Amino acid sequence: MKRSVLIPLGLAVGLFTAGLASAQDARFDVQAFRPLGAAQDLVGVGQTRPISHLSVSGGAYLNFALDPLVLVAAGTNSKSLSIVGNRLQLDIMASVGLLDWIELGLDMPLVMFQSSDNLEAIGTEGFIQSFTPGDLRLTTKVSIPGLRREPAGSGWGGALTFGMGLPTGIQDAFTSDGATTWTPGLMMDYRWESGILLAFNAGFWLRPPREFAGVKWGNAATFGIGAEVPIVRGWGVTAVSTLSGSTPLDKFPDDVRQIPAEFLLGLRWYSGLGLTFTVGGGAGCGCALTSPTLRLFTSVIWVPAITKEYEAIERFKEPPEPKTPLPPPVDPDGDSVIGEGDRCPTAAGPVENGGCPDTDKDNDAVVDRLDRCPEHPAGLRGREGCPLARIEGNKIVILDQVHFATDQDVILPESFPILEEVADELLKHLEIQRVLVEAHTDARASDAYNYDLSRRRAASVMNYLLDSGIAVERLCSAGFGRSRPVASNDSESNMALNRRVEFTIQPPVDGPLPACPPDPAAEQALPPVKQGKKRQTAEPARSASDAR
User: Phi first, then psi: what are they for 521, rounded to 5°?
Assistant: First the structure.
């Protein structure tokens, strides 16, 4: 089959010879300009907000397209055949809003005039029909929950759309697809407080398959992006622009994909009479069938003044009120903590302390809010505000454990500073009559072994304190083995807590000091009590002098 290659506005397509073309080419709707009927829609790109509940709008779009469907000879820019050379079309439109969530609309296209060459080359003797209806379009828009923007609001918006085209046009006149078509889609947009709107549309145009001039024409993906920018918002004057188009979902393997697209720019006026006027124009990309060389359009959409949609448009025209600057924060003390958050509004302090000055009761240079021991100065060797040793209740509390060589009663040098501070506390507090040095172990090994090890370790600590200048009558020692755990012996960390030395302050007495308390190890060594005899008295615990 002989085929001469033709280029419509820059894209190579095939034009069959007259006899063959008439048998194979099927005509379709070439109108790519499909305006929307709401006053604030962006010509052919929709914005997501449905018109207000029970509001109506109606009007018309008039557009002129130059060369929407022409063929040129291959290798040249000369026009070979003008199939639809010029077209003047009127779209009569109406819309209604329901519940502020749904918008229903219709569009009845009427081709007022169109011209062509003799179409004998594509199978029909004579010229294209000039005056003809197009396919009636029914449209629906439904807001997406969570993305329904209020009429005067800003932010994101989202909507689902669905359209149906009824074959009311004339297929031979390129104003109909000859069958029912469907257009599901999605709209997303964002409006700034300044009134600027940016909208995105995407969807499908489901239509019967056709082949024309060697190009597959049928189901297509549609796209659109539009913007509206207020120029004089108080007068309702804005600029609108759109880029929209489609691309067939199927093509012949060796063909270039058709992407008919148009860029349009217009000027809009929301008048106070409920009439919205838009005028503008643009051009096609010159890269596909149905993409015109030039398009001019004008429209008028009427919204009755008694409807909520009229009120919404009037509110849109009102410039946003300038935001009143907040009064300077009240901060009389200049500490950057303001209002109710400042617990001390007349005295400067850090944020961490609620705006109050930091205090240091023990004067150890660690403020009280960070001092774990606010009543006890840390001293030179303390940590986190705590000294290595301090008196609390009936205990001399130490900041760290006393460490011994493994399974021995030898004190490691790292514990010397702690024991020195214990001795210092005893030398400063002579009112303390006696301290019991207790040693405890974990649960490993036998009772007898642990009692013996703890007894020897307690004696080693007591001897260190004696060497530090503590009087012998002020100290006693005892080993408790594993009989008094402070944690379960089920982990290394817990067993480390049980291996400890404690310093217990004995209650004061009047007169001579009594003997040291019994050593638990001595109690364990008692023989069993026999029937009919008194239990033997346990051997007294060793005195301090015995320990040395």
Answer: -65, -35
Q: Which CATH superfamily is domain 3-317 in?
A: monomeric porin ompg (2.40.160.40)
CA 220 to centroid of chain Cα atoms: 34
CA distance 253 to 288: 17
User: Which residue's structure tokens are 């949609």?
Assistant: 309
- Would you give the end-to-end CA distance of the chain in angstroms? 123
Angle in degrees, CA 400, 401, 402, rounded to 5: 125
Query: Would you say 482 and 450 are in contact if contact means Cβ atoms under 8 Å apart?
Result: yes
Q: What is the pLDDT of residue 535?
A: 34
Give the pLDDT confidence score for residue 361 in this predicted structure. Answer: 82
List of residues 6+ apart from 532 with CB closer than 8 A? none
Q: What is the CA radius of gyration of the chain?
A: 48
CATH 3.40.50.300 fits 388-547, yes or no: no
Q: Determine the average pLDDT of the residues in 483-505.
A: 91
Coil/strand/helix, residue 190: strand
Q: How far is CA 485 from CA 168, 233, 438, 481, 482, in A?
A: 95, 80, 13, 9, 6
Domain ranges for the chain, please list them: 3-317, 337-376, 388-547
**Would the CA dihedral through 254, 258, 259, 264 be positive or negative?**
positive
How far apart are alpha carbons 363 and 350 in whole angstroms? 19
Q: State how far the Cα of 516 lies from the Cα of 35, in Å rounded to an integer.
A: 105
How many residues can be counted in the chain? 548
